[in-house]
Amino acid sequence: MTQLAPLPKVVLGSLAFGVFWMLAVFPSVPFLPIGRTAGALLGAVLMIVFHVIDADDAYASIDLPILGLLFATMVVGGYLKGAGMFKHLGALLAWRSQGGRDLLCRVCVVTALASALFTNDTCCVVLTEFVLELAAERNLPAKPFLLALATSANIGSSATPIGNPQNLVIAFNSKITFLQFFFGILPAMLAGMAVNTVMLLCMYWKELDGASPDEVAAVKEMEAVEEGRSPAVLALANINKSPAAVHGAAGLRLRRNGDGDDGEEESVMSENISTKHRWFMQCSEQRRKLFLKSFAYVVTVGMLVAYMLGLNMSWTAITTAIALVVVDFRDAEACLDKVSYSLLVFFSGMFVTVSGFNKTGLPGAIWNFMAPYAKINHVSGVTVLSLIILLLSNLASNVPTVLLMGDEVAASAATISASAVTRSWLLLAWVSTVAGNLSLLGSAANLIVCEQARRAQRNAHDLSFWSHVVFGVPSTLVVTAIGIPLIGKINI
Fold it and tell me: Where in this chain does the record put each Citrate transporter-like domain (predicted)?
């Protein structure tokens, strides 16, 4: 039974956590617009200044394996981006697309599967503007495709420990292997992806009629004839609207808008010939680039295999990252500059803040009150637990929710059976991840899609809070409910 700390410690610890929560959810509040990262550090400092947690415990609460895995994953992602991985994913979306509904289904499936391997945030960063381009080329509204991208990225990322940050926390704290995690959530992820796609189709069926690029070109040609312009001139102007050219043009735009960018690819995957090994000097530039790109794909596959074999995920990812740096054979500063160090600092501050809040005893006391009603061996208990996770994930964000509730939920499940402990962790991963689809504020991936779409140089679209909620609320509730019975059905 968790005991509350003395009242002053509870009050001051809650105040420090409240400051962290406010800046995590509303990073630009007028009276303290310092952002999420600085907000996390402020919360950590307040915990120490208020003597809620001492300095040694604060340092000990920072989970270095998680930070190491995040860092290495971002390095590997940078090399894969330079190798054109996401350009190929974009090309797959555009290849022989058969209208708006077909394109929407492709966006859902490709995004979900890619997010499981390359994180939801990464996929949203590189695919948002490309999806806007595809929709515009077919005279389709942007909103259904942006919603498909954001919601599918969250659902797909639930399937692996490397899909999103909260899954990393769960994988490390629970000691669940990569394969156990993957197969434990895979059925729920696939079912959730399918249901989410069907709901999008049903809600936006009429708006997805659109027109194919060929039909758009034909309409413009007819308009040109009516206006007295030469169809041949118009055909020349619209030559890039053919399916093959659309495929190529989409690839060019994808390279320009964030994946395979010529300048960016050069900065990560190209090399200064004067610093290269003799073997590089004797190869053509094309062969050198092909070797570096091929090596990036090979070692990434090797990293995934190592995860499946149960090797330490953090050091496996770090080894993969340093292998890419060494083989690139040049100053790694260009690649390391692309790491989001602010995210690592945010996590460090959050670890300290959440650890301090736990020391107040308040989270444990709240859980002690709710625990009798949240047993995972009863349908009613699973329902109550899921609703608590959904609510907290949207109020305090999903990673703090996992840090606050993980040990308590597992300890409660341990009183039932050993298998219940594993299922409780997987249930926490599933619900906290899908909860991100409830509103724009529920997930960083949602905010990335919203901001990328709003700032797009071409075909910009403002995905409002309410337009997301209209679809996000029913989708989250239905997908969560359908996935829960499937959690842990495949045991490895």
Answer: 28-435
